[in-house]
Amino acid sequence: MTLDRTSTITLVAVMGAALLLALLNQMTAVGSAAHVPTYMIALAGKYLCFAMLALAVDLVWGFAGILSLGHAAFFALGGYAMGMYLMRQIGTRGVYGNAMLPDFMVFLGWKELPWYWHGFEWFGFAILMAIVVPAALAGVFGWLAFRSRVTGVYLSIITQALTYALLLAFFRNDMGFGGNNGLTDFKDILGFNVQADSTRSALLVISALLLCGQFLLARFVVDSRFGKILIAVRDTESRTRFLGYRPESYKLVVWVLSAVMAGIGGALYVPQVGIINPSEFAPGNSIEAVIWVAVGGRGTLVGAILGAIIVNFGKTWFTGALPEVWLYALGAMFIFVSLFLPRGVMGLFRTRQTKEPEPPAVAAAHEVTG
Amino acid sequence: MHRIIALLFLIILVLPASRSHADTTDDAYDELSASALAISPSSFDSVRQGVEQLAVSGDPRAAVVIGALHDGMLFARDDHLLFIQQPDGSYADARTGVPAKDVTDDDVKSVRVNNAVRSAIDAALGSLQLFAPDAPTRLQAASAVFTSHDPAALPALDKALAKETNPEVKRRMEQAKAAALLSAPDVSQADRLAAVATLRARGDQDSRSLLSALAGQTGPVADAASAAVVSIDHVLQIWSLAQSVYYGVSLGSVLLLAAAGLAITFGVMGVINMAHGEMVMIGAYVTFVVQQLMHAYLPSLYGISLLIAVPMAFLVSGGVGVVVERSLIRWLYGRPLETLLATWGLSLVLQQVVRSLFGANNQQVDTPGWMSGAYQLGGLTLTWNRMYIILFAFLVVAALMAALRYTPLGLRMRAVTQNRRMAAAMGIRTPWIDALTFGLGSGIAGIAGVALSQIDNVSPNLGQGYIIDSFMVVVFGGVGNLWGTTLGALTLGIVNKFLEPIAGAVLAKIVVLVLLILFVQRRPRGMFPLKGRAVEA
Predict the structure, then answer these.
(1) B276-319 tens-digit pLDDT
(2) What ipTM goes with this model?
(3) Considering CB atoms only, which of A161, A287, A370 is closest to B517?
(4) CB B517 to CB A144 under 8 A?
(5) Domain count, chain A
(6) How big is chain B by its Cα radius of gyration, in Å?
(7) Torsions phi, psi of B99, nearest 5?
(8) Phi, psi at A36, each rounded to 5°
(9) Which of A323, B213, B326, B481 falls between 20 and 30 A from B387, CA-CA?
(10) Distance from CA of residue B311 to its chain's centroid?
């Protein structure tokens, strides 16, 4: 696999920036001009996790034509798996001091740990679950959806229904995931204090490493023979089928892979923001992830990372400086990009030598007739 | 002294039984006043009896006298005459109501009551209402007796039944009598069996609990009671089924209203309008503004403000729809995913505009008098606002169908959606028709907002709650088919309401969503898919 220039620049930039921020946080004294405050480290880490979600969305939307409006569900499931591990690490330091039960269970009067909470005291198991649970959900959902050839807008709407159903489910206290408040008040991860500067810096660097790893994996997938067929499915699904391929199998594989990538993003997101609650399942979050990809440039992978960082940086800045304006700006961004920038920011540069994806109109026409 | 008082009571107690009904009224007054003067605890007993007798006497003044006793306003003089203290402190003769000018505070003593007397007063006031001149009060009194099923009310009930002419009230009184009979001691078996049969015929939850108390015992009455309980359970089950269907239809009609506009924009035009919910929200805010304006300038017509809001909401939301189509949607035809994103962005902007204009809090929209209250149909409670919304939903859909079927605009709309190029060749200005069709769908959404303002919080987030449900309805019913949308909405509503008692409201919603996802797998084009070449065009 050879990397084109844009990809190399992206990888170097992401890794370099993460390392630089971590070093400036750790090596300089607090108060010096070069010092990077810890909240910025956490913020940067958050952006990188969002970039993983965007990468996952771009993989299915940009290369398989599956517009998922429920990808944040996989992200949140991965986050909950990590959150459960972090909850178990609190141990007797909770408000109620119960070694076995998290505070909210004591509060609800539960006597025993529910069966699905067992095993989450081990980090390895939690990471495994952050991968397996999104993969399983995506596998079942995708198998049902692709096998019966649900495509295009219909698929988008049922993915949205999926995350909406999960949102409602996780709001319930009976589910045993902390209900409305979710999981929070974490103390340790692998024995390191999650609030500490050094842990934050390490998590940022790990996020950058994993993002680069995911990017390379996605690049490898789309450049492979498998990826070529995927693009064929995106552009004309029925023609690919007539050539003897099974589009549903290709879609299912990439769909599950994408869900796992989102889940890992979520698992890294939780220790850095310190909370996971059901609002992560809100359909709006998934759609926002789509707009990151659209802003950056659909079907470019680099664009997904770029878009996630640009839009979230804008969000942080706007909600701090002009909170009233942020929703206008976000809404206008949706409209503007859809109308005038079908290839996103990456379309402005056009540095990639390979052929750009077909204008969406062609693919869309097929999505309608499915 | 004690002996004399005891003798007096003996006479009072014996006398009423031997006298005819004609003069019980006088007895009752006498007894009340006589006993009121005595201080010994046993006299409370005779006050109680006096109250009971007065209650069944049918005397028109009885309610006033007992009411005065209840309020502590009844006084007795040494000559056994009773007086009621008026609000201004003067006294009036209890028997006639004529003011008694010569009576002063020194002449009279308050008639005292204890707990036994108080409960007798309460029962008496209840049974007195059985003789009230207006039927609704009598009906209410009969229901109250039924609920208390106090055997003490039996004499009053018998008397009232003899006089009663209104069949509905009479039926209620018989049921009340049956309930009281079952709790009374010393009732013949035949009477008890008849009472069980009466309660069985009534067949509601209250009758069931009365009967099930009997069903545990042995004997023919208990057997009849347990048979009646089984029969009532059966009836109750049917009513609760009917109630679930009604709730389901009610929810379905809300879904139908929200989805009807989408059936045009998404179903007929194929535009994925994620801002559809915001069109509904705008309609709800138009209702709010219309009500505020009418309150300020036309208070006399405030009652019909909703009727004025309907066309206004249609025009405002429809106008917004036309502007949106001309400025945004028309550039995105044939690109459904981009349309989806752009209209989602639009929905954020519209929400924020409304939030900036009206604030983020809920706005108060009033329900007019003619829409509040409920109608009782057997075991069903039908609230008027829900009834009106059901009616309104079907009217809207019928009007929409008629508009598409019979108006020139509808004809052109159908022509353009079926074969755009041919329609254009026939001289139809297709871009203009697109804008009007989108405006029509948005306008219908606005009308839905008027109805939803009655049952939901009018806030900038109003529309978000309906967008997913609306798409589900349209997809479930089959795209481009208003009948499918109607049936889809009703089915989803009813299924949801049937699952709710089993699974709880949130789980029911989740189950419905999952079922829908599975359904779309089986029938990707809904219950009533369009057939023919139009589908592929």
Answers:
(1) 999 999 999 999 999 999 888 888 888 888 889 999 999 999 99
(2) 0.78
(3) A161
(4) yes
(5) 1
(6) 34
(7) -60, 135
(8) -105, 120
(9) B481
(10) 28
Secondary structure in 3-state letters for B121-145: HHHHHHHHHHHCCCHHHHHHHHHHH
Residues of A in contact with B533 (CB under 8 A): none
Range(s) of the domain holding residue A68: 5-369
Amino acid at B408: P
For residue B100, the 8-state DSSP code is -
What CATH number matches the domain at B240-536, 1.10.10, 1.25.40, 1.10.3470, 1.10.1740? 1.10.3470
- The answer to whether A333 and A310 are in contact (CB under 8 A) is no
Q: Is A19 exposed, middle or buried (0-12, 13-18, 19+ CB in 10 A)?
A: middle
Please indicate whether, in this complex, the C-beta atoms of A162 and B517 are within 8 angstroms of each other. Answer: yes
Q: Which chain B residues contact residue A154 at CB under 8 A? A: 475, 520, 524
How does pLDDT run across A121-135, given as a tens digit for each residue? Answer: 899 999 999 999 999
Contacts of A204 (CB under 8 A, 6+ apart): A18, A21, A22, A41, A42, A44, A45, A48, A272
Q: Per the CB < 8 Å rule, is A162 touching B513?
A: yes
Is 0.80 topped by the overall pTM?
no
Q: What does the alpha-carbon distance between residue A207 and residue A269 come to, in Å, rounded to a whole number?
A: 9
Q: Determine the length of chain A.
A: 370
Residue A267: burial class (beta carbons within 10 Å; 0-12, 13-18, 19+): buried
Interface contact flag, A148 B522, Cβ < 8 Å: yes
Coil/strand/helix, residue A122: coil
pLDDT tens digit sequence for B454-481: 888 898 888 887 887 888 888 888 777 7
Measured between CB atoms, which of A157, A294, A331 is closest to B352? A331
Show the DSSP H helices in chain A as ranges. 5-27, 38-64, 71-90, 103-107, 123-147, 152-171, 197-223, 225-235, 237-242, 247-273, 283-296, 302-321, 323-340, 344-349, 360-369
Inter-chain residue contact B468 with A164, CB threshold 8 Å: yes
The HSE-up count of residue B315 (CA atoms within 13 Å, CB side) is 7
Residue B45 reports pLDDT greater than 80: no
Domain extent listing, chain B? 2-124, 132-217, 240-536
